[in-house]
Amino acid sequence: MKKNRILSKKWYGLAFAALAALLLLACPAMKQATVRPPATIPGADYIGIDSCALCHPETVKNFKYARHAKLSVPLPDGKEILGCEACHGAGSLHMAAGGGRGKHIINPGKNPQTCYQCHPEVQAFFNLQYHHPLQEQGVSCNACHSPHGQDIMLPENKMVGRHNAPCVQCHQDQGRPFVFEHEALREDCTTCHNHHGSINDKMLVASDANLCLRCHAQISAEGSIELGDQNHASRLAQGPCWAAGCHTAVHGSNMNAHLRY
Ligand code: HEC
Ligand code: HEC
Ligand code: HEC
Ligand code: HEC
Ligand code: HEC
Ligand code: HEC
Ligand code: HEC
Prior knowledge:
Strand order of the largest sheet: 1-2
Bound molecules: heme C
Radius of gyration: 23 Å
Distance between the termini: 48 Å
Number of helices: 13
Helix content: 25-40%
Number of strands: 6
Shape: elongated
């Protein structure tokens, strides 16, 4: 039962998104996924998911749970692309060649352009000054998302542990257990970091004390700012809360309960 509910929720989500995408054509100011056909592979035709299943049976089997499995991408000639080829492009030449790497098929793991065609808003974040080094160092979309899998918010081959799981596989220092943990990390790394990119150093969602005051502010009447039973008004004027000498151990500390170091 539970599974059915989740599936139908996904289905409604996608149906809604498809609708939203249609609306988007009329309203370019909206920031949501849009649905556009992949780059053309010269001379290739669309062959459908059943053909892919001949040689990639495992991927096809898992794919029915994937977020993108219900996508229908309209073509100018009135036909539609369903499933695998929405990301990988038309597969007939790939199949005729007996498959193979670099054989007439798009691999978005090597080039995120395929994802950007439908997620231009994500591209905009990766174009900001501070971003994950996608092209530069090969942190591809699938480092954090499983395009074929059950939960697109987890990296490939990770089945559980949604919160922080994609981040901690590469950033163990911030995600490891601490004697004095900072409860903010129980939520999600994305509470403070923009996962795709940001105008702020370290991809922070805010560059100043506001990052922390979203959870910690207690402003009392006389203009003092009470944090941890101490007036921080003058301290806050000196720099961000994590500046040297202050709470540098924002991710947790093994030595100091107030996350000083
Ligand atoms: C005749 C068998 C066959 C068919 C049909 C087939 N593939 Fe493949 N494909 C392969 C083989 C073999 C490889 C190489 C796998 C490897 O080296 O691990 C491959 C590799 C790939 C790759 C990786 C390419 C790269 O450059 O890294 C993608 C993506 C892919 N296939 C997608 C598809 C899609 C989508 C379909 C259906 C439209 C499809 N394949 C149909 C056999 C096939
Ligand atoms: C949302 C876009 C998307 C869809 C839809 C999609 N894929 Fe992929 N596919 C990717 C990405 C991204 C990668 C690169 C993953 C990686 O390198 O681990 C990939 C990689 C592959 C590979 C190569 C795997 C390897 O070992 O390098 C194969 C084969 C493949 N896909 C087949 C399929 C088949 C078959 C379907 C349909 C059942 C499908 N894909 C649907 C995005 C997609
Ligand atoms: C043909 C268009 C299309 C392509 C190509 C495409 N997506 Fe999507 N994607 C969508 C739509 C539509 C949705 C669902 C609507 C939404 O959440 O905005 C979606 C949803 C998602 C979500 C979940 C969003 C959420 O809020 O839950 C992620 C993550 C995602 N896509 C990543 C990718 C990645 C990574 C690639 C490339 C490997 C990719 N997409 C390629 C159209 C596409
Ligand atoms: C460093 C890890 C990471 C990388 C790399 C990454 N993402 Fe994400 N992505 C996330 C996280 C984390 C979320 C937010 C999940 C949440 O809020 O539950 C997310 C959310 C999304 C969403 C949902 C809507 C949104 O904008 O937040 C889409 C669509 C998406 N990613 C697409 C992509 C595409 C396309 C790529 C590659 C160009 C990519 N992501 C690369 C971590 C990443
Ligand atoms: C595939 C590995 C990988 C994953 C997964 C990953 N990152 Fe990264 N991250 C990197 C690399 C590589 C850099 C660039 C490091 C550098 O330039 O020193 C980086 C940089 C960063 C930085 C900036 C560090 C600095 O010193 O400027 C932050 C913050 C960050 N990542 C947070 C996250 C968060 C949050 C997530 C999960 C949503 C995540 N990362 C997932 C590999 C990864
Ligand atoms: C409470 C807010 C907050 C949360 C939650 C958070 N970070 Fe950070 N993170 C920061 C701040 C602030 C900095 C900048 C520290 C500096 O510049 O000295 C930072 C810096 C980083 C850096 C750069 C290296 C370093 O340690 O300075 C990485 C990588 C990073 N964070 C990863 C993560 C990961 C992974 C998670 C989730 C496990 C996470 N962060 C959760 C606030 C946070
Ligand atoms: C998502 C909410 C949230 C954010 C954002 C957040 N914190 Fe926290 N923080 C908490 C919670 C919850 C606790 C534990 C309860 C408490 O002590 O207030 C805590 C505890 C602390 C403590 C230990 C308090 C003590 O002395 O015992 C310090 C220091 C701290 N946070 C600093 C920061 C700094 C610096 C930032 C910004 C980089 C920040 N927090 C951002 C939620 C948050």
